């Protein structure tokens, strides 16, 4: 009968689909045949392609803007007649106005759209980064106020552009600092391409401002060194001759008034803060650029946010405070003696001796911390984190400044007279500085990739919740659940008792390195530049060549110390 045939064929069909060897066949279902799967897959693929295309286009925009601005600044340096400083200021003013228009549009338009900011990156824009933005922004504003006052006093030999440019700069700094403070964690979900282009344009503008600030800072140091060498004419020494600098100092000199001297000294002193401000802003803006269109799932959000506490640390803050106090005394002594008309040799000996004592201690601490990280066997944090990736790149890149200058100093000393007392100190300082940079980078990068440490009670709560959920699904009774939790708790408490000393050691080392990096940041930032003032490398490589090397390495070295403080604080908190 037809009905019986159908009934016999159906069981036979299902029986063939349920043998013991059937699961491999049933698990390989061809979902791609369904329209919904193909549609969702194509949407995801188009979304990734659009994201890559937007990043590529915005990156090309920033690259072209940076090349154009660099060509202007380089032309100003090498041919100051055809391209003047006023021309560079006009170009940068146009870029800043464009950036201001985009930032205001983002604040008033993009960020207020529905579903614009659904996610916020908890790792981006930590409090010390945003605090450093506000700190350096304040100093940069004060710098521009001094520049306006200095140019107003010398208005007879200064261009009016030198008053307009700092005024635009003040408004740009205020707006950008407000923008970064409130929106550095945003993962914007609307107007992706326009936001990426605006962020990249702002990054390019900050890079050009940094390049110009470094150039102008170099010019001021050259003028100070030139004036010092001119004073040595009375001692029978041949002074250095630089026509451009001589014309600058002769045509526009500060009158003998207190207010002009204050503006002039403040103008020169605050320049390093302006360079730091530009670099910090670039790093924060880059993280925002990477987070455009990013969707953060729940497992990316930390269940417990570590906090900064000073409990359990004694030796690190104590030794670090001693290093800071001694460093301040050495710095003041160096500034008094080395900035006189005839720099004292003793000032350089004391300065380099302080570094020779401090750098090995920092290196030993970093090596011990790295060994402790290896002994911990803690799981690595492998989740996608643009902030951490940028921190690693900045640490490695900024360290090239000090490492590069150190190698140039080593070559100059070995080729001249390494047996001299001062030369041997400079040689030791250069070698130790290279080793300290490498060991500290390894320690910080290794610590940034470690999972944050959680107290035992929090860890037990998380494990209990996870086990409870898993056991409920399997239908296991509460007695077995309690026994399993007890085993996990005893095992964790036993491991914690063995790891507690390692955690304390990591916190002590991290805090000590934080204070040491702070004092090593303060000394060159506020004017201690023995790499140029000792005269050894300058006489070996020549005035212009060595100044180009210092021009590249010194700002990066200052930025490295400041960025290391942020990385070490992260390591301290996660420990």
TrEMBL record:
GO molecular function terms attached to this record: proton channel activity
Keyword check for Cell inner membrane: no
Classification via Pfam families: Otopetrin (PF03189)
Keyword Ion transport among UniProt keywords: yes
Basic residues bias locations: 7-17
Membrane topology classification: Multi-pass membrane protein
Subcellular location, principal: membrane
Domain of life: Eukaryota
Name recorded for this polypeptide: OTOP3 protein
Protein source organism: Rissa tridactyla
Gene responsible for this protein: Otop3
């Amino acid at each position: 009968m037809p009905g019986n045939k159908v009934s016999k064929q159906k069981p036979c069909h299902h029986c063939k689909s349920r043998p013991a060897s059937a699961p491999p066949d049933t698990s390989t279902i061809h979902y791609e045949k369904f329209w919904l799967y193909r549609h969702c897959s194509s949407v995801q693929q188009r979304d990734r392609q659009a994201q890559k295309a937007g990043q590529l286009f915005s990156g090309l925009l920033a690259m072209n803007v940076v090349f154009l601005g660099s060509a202007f600044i380089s032309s100003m340096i090498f041919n100051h007649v055809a391209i003047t400083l006023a021309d560079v200021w006009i170009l940068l003013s146009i870029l800043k106005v464009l950036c201001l228009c985009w930032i205001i549009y983002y604040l008033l338009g993009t960020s207020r759209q529905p579903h614009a900011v659904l996610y916020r990156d908890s790792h981006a824009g930590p409090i010390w980064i945003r605090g450093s933005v506000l700190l350096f922004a304040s100093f940069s504003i004060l710098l521009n106020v001094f520049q306006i006052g200095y140019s107003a006093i010398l208005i007879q030999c200064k261009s009016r552009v030198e008053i307009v440019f700092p005024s635009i700069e003040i408004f740009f700094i205020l707006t950008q600092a407000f923008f970064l403070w409130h929106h550095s964690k945003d993962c914007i979900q609307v107007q992706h391409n326009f936001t990426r282009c605006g962020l990249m344009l702002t990054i390019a503008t900050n890079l050009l401002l940094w390049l110009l600030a470094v150039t102008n800072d170099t010019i001021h140091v050259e003028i100070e060194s030139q004036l010092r060498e001119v004073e040595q004419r009375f001692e029978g020494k041949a002074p250095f001759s630089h026509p451009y600098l001589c014309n600058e100092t002769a045509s526009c000199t500060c009158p003998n008034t207190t207010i002009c001297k204050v503006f002039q000294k403040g103008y020169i002193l605050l320049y390093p803060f302006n360079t730091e401000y530009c670099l910090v802003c670039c790093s924060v803006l880059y993280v925002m650029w990477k987070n455009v269109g990013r969707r953060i799932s729940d497992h990316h959000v930390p269940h417990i946010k570590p906090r900064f506490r000073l409990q359990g640390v004694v030796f690190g803050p104590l030794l670090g405070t001693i290093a800071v106090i001694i460093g301040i005394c050495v710095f003041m002594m160096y500034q008094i003696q080395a900035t006189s008309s005839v720099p004292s040799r003793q000032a350089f000996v004391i300065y380099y001796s302080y570094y020779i004592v401090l750098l090995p201690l920092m290196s030993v601490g970093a090596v011990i911390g790295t060994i402790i990280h290896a002994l911990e066997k803690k799981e690595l944090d492998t989740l996608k984190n643009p902030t951490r990736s940028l921190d690693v790149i900045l640490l490695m890149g900024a360290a090239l400044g000090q490492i590069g200058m150190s190698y140039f100093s080593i070559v100059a000393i070995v080729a001249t007279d390494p047996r001299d007392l001062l030369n041997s100190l400079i040689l030791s300082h250069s070698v130790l500085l290279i080793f300290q940079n490498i060991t500290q980078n390894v320690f910080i990068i290794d610590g940034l990739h470690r999972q944050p440490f959680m107290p035992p009670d929090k860890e037990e709560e998380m494990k209990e919740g996870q086990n409870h959920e898993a056991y409920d699904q399997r239908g296991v009774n509460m007695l077995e659940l309690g026994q399993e939790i007890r085993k996990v708790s005893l095992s964790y408490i036993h491991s914690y008792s063995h790891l507690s000393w390692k955690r304390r050691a990591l916190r002590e080392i991290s805090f000590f390195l934080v204070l040491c990096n702070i004092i090593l940041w303060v000394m060159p930032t506020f004017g201690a530049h023995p790499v140029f003032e000792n005269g050894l490398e300058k006489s070996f490589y020549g005035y212009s060549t060595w100044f180009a090397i210092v021009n590249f390495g010194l700002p990066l070295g200052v930025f490295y110390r400041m960025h290391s403080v942020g990385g070490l604080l992260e390591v301290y908190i996660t420990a």
